[in-house]
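Side project, low priority. Logging it here so it doesn't get lost.
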Amino acid sequence: MSKQFKRTLITSALPYANGPVHIGHLAGVYVPADIYARYLRLKGEETLFVGGSDEHGIPITIRARKEGVTPQDIVDRYHELIKKSFEEFGISFDIYSRTTSDIHRKTASEMFLKIYENGGFQEIESEQYYDEEAGQFLADRYITGTCPHCSNQRAYGDQCEQCGTSLSPNELIDPKSALSGSVPVMRKTKHWYLPLNEHEAWLRQWILEDHKEWKSNVYGQCKSWLDLGLQPRAVSRDLDWGIPVPLKGAEGKVLYVWFDAPIGYISNTKELLPDDWEKWWKEKETKLVHFIGKDNIVFHCIVFPAMLKAEGSYILPENVPANEFLNLENDKISTSRNWAVWLHEYLEEFPGKQDVLRYVLTANAPETKDNDFTWKDFQARNNNELVAVLGNFINRALVLTQKYFDNRVPASDQLTDYDRATIAECQQVKQAVEYNLENYHFREAQKEAMNLARIGNKYLADSEPWKTAKTDMARTATILNLSLQIVANLAIVCEPFLPFSAKKIYSFLLAEKFDWEKLGSFDLLPAGHQLGTAELLFEKIEDEAIARQVEKLHATREANEQESYQAKPIKEKILFDDFSKLDIRVGTVLECEKVPKADKLLRFLLDDGIGKRTILSGIAAHYPNPGELVGKQVCFIANLEPRKLRGILSEGMILSAENADGSLSLIEPSKAVLPGSQIC
C-alpha cells in the first residue's frame, strides 16, 4: 500500500553560479521538476517547489581568478542570470534563492554545530598539497599535471578533461600549483569528517529494502556504493571562500561545498516561510522529492540523508528521480568547453518558443540512459508534432467553429457510437498521464497528453464537418462541440508540460483555468459560449534558423580544438650526423595533378635546380584544385631512395605540416629562392 502524505516538498539541484544554465540542466532536473510541481498544484495538492544557486566551491574561485574579480562578483552575476532565465522559461519555483544569503550561512552553521554536539563528526589529520609561494593548501582543482592515462599535460587533480578519467592529486605526473606554478609540498592539516561508514547499516535497509521502487539507475548506483563500503568524508576544507567552520581553532577552514549546498534547500524554505518551514522538513506527513542529475545521486541518497539523520530532527527523501545525462550533437555537454545550448541565449534567439524547448527536452528526456539533443530533431519535433498535430487540431476546430457557428460553441445533438468511442478514448488519457507523472515517467506522460491531440485530429478527419455542413448542421454542431471540448481538455493536460501554450489555448477559448479533476469532462464549454480569436499556436522552424545553430556549434568545436591543441611528443633524439645526411631542398612546382584511380595521391613535377623530378605526395584531400599549386615553391627531401607508387617512380618526399584538425599544409619558403636551394 502506497504511503499517504499531506503535502509534497520538491527540490531541484542547485546549479553552480559560475556559468549560465544549459539544456542538460533543464532536461535532467528543472523541466521534470517543474512538470511535477505544476501537476500537483493543478490537482489542488499542497506543494512547495524550492530552488536556488550554489555559490560556494572551487569552480567559482577558479572562474574569479581567471577573470581577475572576486568570487562574490561571479556569483552575483550568474545568480541573477540563472534566476532570470528560469523565470522567463517558466520554471515555477516558489522561491529561488542563494547560498550566500545570511539565512543560509546561519542555517548551515547551526546544522554543523548540532551534528558536532551530537558527536556526529570525526577529527582527522592528514597530509595535503600546500603551495608555499601562495601560502595556502590546494584544492584538487588547483593542482595540475600530466595525466597518467592519456599524457594530457593539463589534467586537474580531480579529473582529466581530455580522457574523462577521475584522478587524485597523487596520481598526477609532475604536479604543479595552478596558483603560482610552483611545485607543491605535502603538509599536515586537520579536518572534520562525516563517518558515513557508521551510517551504512541503516542506509542499506532504508534504500535497498525500503525503497526498491526507486529508479533502477538510482537504486543501482546506491547499491554499488554501499557494496563497496562507505568511508568517512571531509565536511571542511582549507579555503577562503565559503561558510567558515563555526568552531574555535578552525580559522581558514570552510564547510565543504557538498555539505553546505544541500542545506540550501532548508535555508531557502526558511527564507520563504520563516514561521512555517518546519512542517515541510520535520513532519512525516511531508513527501520530500529531490530532482537531480545522475552525478548527484550519491550526495542526495546517501550523504545528505546521513547528514539529516546525524542532526536528528529532519525527514528523509521519499524519492530521488535522478535522470541520466543529455548530450549535444553526439558530444558530452561541457561548460568549460562552451559545448552547450545556453538557456539565456536560446530565449534571445528563439523568442516565444519556451514550450518548444520544454517539449523537445521532455520528449527526449534521459530518464533511463544518456540521450542526445540535435537541432535537426528539435526542428522535426516542432514541425511534425507541435505544429502538425497539436497546433493543427486546435486551429482547425476553432476556425471551423468561427466559419459555421459565428465563433460560438454549438450545442451538441445526438451522439453516434463513434462520438462515444472518441470520448471514452479521450477520458483514458487522464489515467495514463497521472500514472506516468506519479511514477516520474515524464516522457511517457507527455506522449500520452499529446495523444489527446492525435485523437482530435483523427476525429475531425474521420467526421469531416466541412462536408456535413452542406447537408446536416446538427451533425456538424455535434462534431465541433466535441472537438472544442477536446481543445479545452488539451488546455488542462498541456499546463504541466507546455504552460505558455496552455495559457494561449485558454485565451483562444476565453475560458478560465480548469482544475485537473475536470480533465476528461466533455461539458467544459457550454453551448453558446463566445470564443476568442483563433491564432496559430506554433509556427514552423525553417532550415535557416537551424543552420545558424549548427554553424554556431561548429565554430565552438573549432575554437575548442585550437585551445586544447597539444603538439605531439618529440621523437627520440638523434645524432647531428644522422640529421646532416638529409638533403632538404626547395623546388618550384612545374606540374601538379591527381594520380588516376588514387584518391590520396598528387603527382608533382618539380624544377629542382638540376633538372626535373617527379614526387608523389598523399595530400590530394587537402588540395582539391592541384593546378593552383603550379608556380609555388615547396620543400622536399632530395636524397630519399626512389620508389614506385601506382607504377610511377617517386624521387623524394615533399614536406608538409599537420594542423590540429588533421589538415595538411605544404611547407614553403617565406620568399622566393632559386630552385635547388638547400635548407640548412
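Brief comment: The domain at 576-678 is CATH 2.40.50.140 (OB fold (Dihydrolipoamide Acetyltransferase, E2P)).
Revisit when time allows.
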